[in-house]
From TrEMBL:
Keywords: Membrane, Transmembrane, Transmembrane helix. It is found in: Plastid, Chloroplast stroma. GO terms for cellular component: chloroplast stroma. Belongs to the alpha-class carbonic anhydrase family. GO terms for molecular function: carbonate dehydratase activity; hydro-lyase activity; zinc ion binding. It catalyses: hydrogencarbonate + H(+) = CO2 + H2O. The keyword Transmembrane applies. Pfam families: Carb_anhydrase. This is Alpha-carbonic anhydrase domain-containing protein. Residues 66-300 form the Alpha-carbonic anhydrase domain. Reversible hydration of carbon dioxide. The chain crosses the membrane at residues 28-50.
Amino acid sequence: MSLPIISIIHYLEKQEVATMTTCCCYKVFFFLVSLIFLILCSTFTVLAAASGRELIGFKPVTNDTIPFSYIEATGRGPSKWGQLDPKWKACGDGKLQSPIDLLDQNVKVLYGQEDQLRRDYKPANATIISRGRDILVAWKSDAGKISINGTDYNLQGSHWHVPAEHTFNFKKYDMELHIVHVNSLGATAVVGVLYKYGKPDPFLSKVFLFPYIKSVTKQEKSLGIFCPNEMVFESRKLYRYIGSLSVPPCNESVIWTVVKKVRTVSREQVQLLRDVVDDGYQANARPVQPLNGRAVNLFIRPSKNL
């Protein structure tokens, strides 16, 4: 019961009231108000915990005022993230952390699963911004969604990690694209696409056409109408597991979908991503985390459903 309500009840109990009936009515009334208040607060807390996130208007809460690093020598590297802020505790002691190594012997192969990932993207207003640790393309209006087992997750943004964070059978690749989606309750679903050096990536080529790409700062700049379908990835073979955000606060219960097919990116594109990140990172990839017995599935669709 909150202090203001307790004070009101104490005040009423000290007053002279006309009858015992009136006094009882006051007590019952304020007891019911207090009970409703506690139930509402508890319900909101449970919803936030169930989604693995803090919720403010169904938006993820992050704290960019506390610097973290990918360099262990700074004392703020990945092994210390959980000690930098009480809200980042999961980074240190969480049991469902990401990224992971997708090892064949730990994967269960499932064939013919039709509803594991359906895309329905559409052109929308987008912006680009440097967050110091990476470059973010964010969609500011309805850019469509993905559907996982019948649940819709709305597209929020995409960013890149160099080198890749997830590994296949301990093999590390050169870059990873994360496409972040959030549903109406604040739950997160991320699609990860891995890259190796080769031909230029069409999506990055499109982004890099903008003349100000080399001067991207922490102030958002408009990309105008931008189509998410430029982020081409094959969806026939998909890994799926439950993990976390791979950056602080490392909130868990994130639905991860990692595309098995590795795409290509040019060395020049990767170098440009590094150059426009203003904190001097030559790498922004968190090390792989323990699997801790989690289930990892590989869904394979028939070729006709590509």
